[in-house]
Model the fold of this input.
Amino acid sequence: MGNFLRLVGTLAAIAAAASFGLSAVYNATHEITEEYKRQEQAAARIEALACDAGAHFVKSETDSIVNGRPFEYYTGYAEAESDSIIGYSFTAYGKGYSSTIETIVGVDMTGTICGIKITSQKETPGLGAKVEEVASQNTLWAVMTGSAVDETGARPWFQVQFNGMVAEDLTVVKSATEEGILAITGATISSDAVTESILDGLETLKSVVGLDAAGETEPGGGEESAGEAAGEVEPAAEGDAP
Done:
């Protein structure tokens, strides 16, 4: 009985120490992790909108709910103290096969997608995880002979498909001969998750902001109708650009 109690006491002490240690590590790194994530998202907005690193973003909150989350968006300005809007950005959340896929989307004044950047996913390696795969065009022979092409800065082929798309184009297809977003082989669920979440967000953004094909804001649209801006201005600090 005494040995049993000692064993229980030892295990309890180890569990308490481990819990205290994890808590201490979390408290010590939480702010650093949050700042890193903020910078990563700021860089993703710049990449998605294909804008200059000096761009500024103002966050706006809305009453809309998209995929179970409050819909927020950012208005991009060419520079600080500027009234020149270069576009909008929002984060889409799609339920994939084994994770929620988070995608930052850049949209111009006509409602056309400038680009997307997937910032979080835990899909199956070799299948759904290919949403972030950069397919190399270089062959082994090209690498061995030194004739390989520099592919620095190449972007994932799945994500590039969204460039220049409008809401009506966002349909997942399974053949390259069809018009739409070509699904990743063996990962239709992940492909659908990204595409449908972007479509939902884009339709909501167009409704909230009032974008039309001419690149003008319709009467009643804009940030005022979306609710008070949160007042959060995020300058793209040096080093934020990809």
